[in-house]
Amino acid sequence: MPRADDSALHYPLGATLPATGRTLDVAPGVRWLRMPLPFALDHINLWLLDDDDAGVAIVDCGIANDATRAAWEQVFEHELHGQPVRRVLVTHMHPDHVGLAHWLTERWDCRLWMSASDWSAARLASQSTTGYGGESAARFFALHGLVDEQAQAKVRARSNYYASMVPTVPTRYRRLMAGMNVTVGGHAWRCIAGWGHAPEHIALYNEALGVLISGDMVLPRISTNVSVIDLEPEANPLELYLASIARLRELPADTLVLPSHGRPFVGLHERIDQLVAHHDARLAEALAACRARPCSAAELLPVLFQRALDLHQTTFAMGESIAHLHLLAARGALRGAPGADGVMRFAAV
Ligand SMILES: [Zn+2]
């Protein structure tokens, strides 16, 4: 996730950030909140929308921990002015987005709104060890060359990773689907489905306000994580992701983008151009490396990521490295085959 030159983007609020537990107005009836995250990526943006009957709708939740719950309590105390929370909309299944959905919907006795794919995937992941660690993930990373004993042991031990941040997911929900308009406080928000980052990510576009809640599909300074994971080992998510962001070019150039990480910005088309160029460059580097000699995803890490990676970052980076290899293979530029050591390596065709 290298940082991009963001001089092409405009940040209407400058360097102003909402304090924890407080909100900032970003558009009429749209407020911005930030919650802490215990990762290198240290925050997530959430949104409050004025909803029907003098209530509010929450968009995304933060992970389930005491710091986030405490921040929400501050929001409830200082920012709602007696308004009840009417519903919780969630862009996708990742822990920083859906983590506290159960707590919020129970506390306010309201409904979770989410795509069917992501609700199902979140329910499954919070109840099992799929996708983010454990034996299956360790084997998958080993197939792709991450054979380092320490890394393997850490991935294997991380079997409770998702559930630690998403202990439970509401058992009932209301389905968000591509093209659907959700009316929130008299405003129509169109659901724009996107693929490649999560099973069925839903961004929300308000044409009247010229506002896109982009979730993780378009971020201003870091590139969205696009990973192959052990649950879907032959996936080609990078192709899906690039096609998804290409469709966002249909939105007006002056759209105010509200991303899940970083600051609200104008410059959607420029940012899409940057992201496409970023992936084109990584694909060219991966192809060049595989032309020199067949490479595993692990062997590509120093080519694609020129910095030290901790375990959390290494697992993300592995998923991304495999995603680049799979796209090149799907386009016919590479062919993957397991070597005598059982590691999958990709050679130029
Ligand atoms: Zn995400």
The helix content is 25-40%
Could you say which small molecules are bound to this protein? zinc ion
Shape designation: globular
The CA-CA distance between the termini, in Å, is: 28 Å
State which percent range the strand residues make up: 15-25%
Radius of gyration: 20 Å
Note the total helix count: 11
The pLDDT mean sits at 94
Largest sheet: number of strands, sense, barrel closure: 7 strands, mixed
The side-by-side strand order for the widest beta sheet comes to: 1-2-3-4-5-6-7
Label the structural class. Answer: alpha/beta
Order of H and E elements: EEEEHEHHEHHHHEEEEEHEEHHHEE
**Quantity of strands, as a count:** 15
Low-confidence stretches: none
Summarize the SSE layout with pairings.
Blueprint: E1 24-27, E2 30-36, E3 43-51, E4 55-59, H1 66-79, E5 85-89, H2 95-98, H3 101-107, E6 111-115, H4 116-127, H5 134-143, H6 149-157, H7 161-165, E7 174-176, E8 181-184, E9 187-194, E10 201-206, E11 211-215, H8 237-247, E12 256-259, E13 265-266, H9 268-292, H10 297-304, H11 311-330, E14 334-338, E15 344-348
Bound molecules: zinc ion.
Zinc ion is lined by residues 92, 94, 197-198, 216.
Structure report:
The chain has 349 residues and is α/β, with parallel strands linked by helices. Helix content is 36%, strand content 22%. It is built from 11 helices and 15 strands. It has a 7-stranded mixed β-sheet with strand order 1-2-3-4-5-6-7. It has a 6-stranded mixed β-sheet with strand order 8-9-10-11-12-13. Helix 5 (134-143) packs antiparallel against helix 6, helix 9 crosses helix 11 and helix 10 crosses helix 11. The protein is globular and about 65 Å long. It starts with 23 loop residues before the first strand and ends with a strand. The mean pLDDT is 94. Zinc ion is lined by residues 92, 94, 197-198, 216.
